[in-house]
Design goal:
Strand content: 15-25%
CATH superfamily of the largest domain: Winged helix-like DNA-binding domain superfamily/Winged helix DNA-binding domain
Strand order of the largest sheet: 1-3-2
CATH architecture of the largest domain: Orthogonal Bundle
Radius of gyration: 27 Å
Helix content: 40-55%
Distance between the termini: 13 Å
Order of helices and strands: HHEHHEEHEEEE
Largest sheet: 3 strands, antiparallel
Number of helices: 5
Number of strands: 7
Number of domains: 2
Shape: elongated
CATH topology of the largest domain: Arc Repressor Mutant, subunit A
C-alpha cells in the first residue's frame, strides 16, 4: 500500500505528540486540564505522588509536543490544553484505521476468491548443505513452505 504525502506528514507531526502521551502522568495531566480547564502547577500538583518540579518537567515535554501552552499570570504560569493536536492525532488514527480496514477487506476478498496456488520456489525439493548440522549435513529446502497467494490486490511485481 502506498502512503500519501499527507499521511507521512501527519505521522511525522504526530510522533512527538504520541511520545508525550505515552506517559501515564502526562495522560493524567491532559485529562485534568481537559476536565478542569487552565490552571497553575500549584493547582495541578495535588493528587500526584510527584513533586511540582516533576509536574513542570512533564508540562514542558507536553508544551514541546504542542499539547499545552502556558501564559504568565503574575508570578505563576497558567497551563492550558490545546485540543487541536489531539484532534489532528485522532484524524491521523482514523486514517490509519481506514487503511487497515481497506487492506483487510482486500485480503478477505482474495482469500474468499480461492485464487491461492503453491509458492514457486526454485529451491523447493533441492538439497542444501547445512554446516554444523548433526543430521548428516543435508536437508530438503522448501518442503515446509505453505501455500501463498499469487497476489493480494493491486499489480503484480
Amino acid at each position: 500500500m502506498r502512503r500519501s504525502s499527507k499521511s507521512i506528514a501527519a505521522a511525522k507531526g504526530s510522533a512527538s505528540l504520541f511520545a508525550a502521551l505515552g506517559d501515564k502522568t502526562r495522560l493524567r495531566l491532559v485529562s485534568h486540564l481537559c476536565d478542569d480547564g487552565p490552571m497553575s502547577i500549584t493547582r495541578l500538583t495535588p493528587g500526584y505522588s510527584i513533586t511540582r518540579q516533576a509536574i513542570a518537567k512533564h508540562l514542558r515535554v507536553m508544551e514541546e509536543a504542542g499539547l499545552v501552552r502556558s501564559t504568565r499570570h503574575g508570578r505563576e504560569k497558567i497551563w492550558r490544553l490545546d485540543q487541536q493536536p489531539l484532534e489532528d492525532a485522532r484524524r491521523y488514527l482514523e486514517l490509519i484505521s481506514k487503511q487497515w480496514d481497506d487492506a483487510l477487506g482486500r485480503l478477505g476478498k482474495f482469500v474468499e476468491s480461492g485464487r491461492m496456488k503453491p509458492v514457486r520456489n526454485d529451491l523447493r525439493g533441492k538439497r542444501a548443505r547445512v554446516t554444523g548440522s548433526s543430521s548428516g549435513g543435508e536437508r530438503r529446502i522448501g518442503a515446509h513452505l505453505p501455500l501463498a497467494p499469487d497476489r493480494i490486490g493491486g499489480k503484480r511485481d
